[in-house]
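REQUEST FORM: STRUCTURE PREDICTION
Request ID: SP-0412
Submitted by: Lab K.M.
Chain count: 1
Length (residues): 218
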Amino acid sequence: MDGVSWWVPALNMALTIAAIVLFSYRVPWAWLLPVTTTAVLLATGIPNGRLNTSTVFVLAAALYGLWKWTQYRREGIHVPLRSAHGREWGIGAGLLLLLYLLNAFAGVTPVAEIGPVYLFNALLAALPAVMYLGFAHGITQSWWLGVALSLATMFLSTIQNAPVWFSLYGAIAAGLQVFGYLTWQHAMRRPMRSKHRLAPAHPGRPATPGTGAPGRTA
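STATUS: Completed
RESULT:
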């Protein structure tokens, strides 16, 4: 590996794992980590002719997520969590396809070098931008894009005989992303469990436990 190629993926992996943990707990400053990694990729990729189209979109999605979560923080509320709407599934699929096509065919790669592995990598490069847009809107299913990306990283590392720490990174990232999904699911259900807690049903009269109805007075 040259002076750039070894430390860029190592830094990207370390910051990505840290970001996954922070995203799990909806820490707004988690967005600074993907912003940093994509900025490093841009800085090291442009001079060497290795600029990936998706890197620009990932950076834009991360900056958008940082802005959106910061607004929630200023309002003093946690990032609201929800499941994706039907229309959002279509938007996400369309955006993923668009980024894939841009990665695969809008560059300067010779046609002779476009093979199955190249196309697979182009698809994987499109996943983070869509995932981060989902995170920005608190969509819990976005975590599964990260799981798919991590498992695919393990697969590619195996067939390409990459150093073992690439596979180890994929396994750790996938496990943490499942943890993030479960954490968001738990947080999303918590308000539902507390929805019927005691609340005054009438000024000056306490509520009857478990019902919300006015209590009897002596």
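NOTES: The two ends are 82 Å apart (CA to CA).
Reviewed by: T.R.
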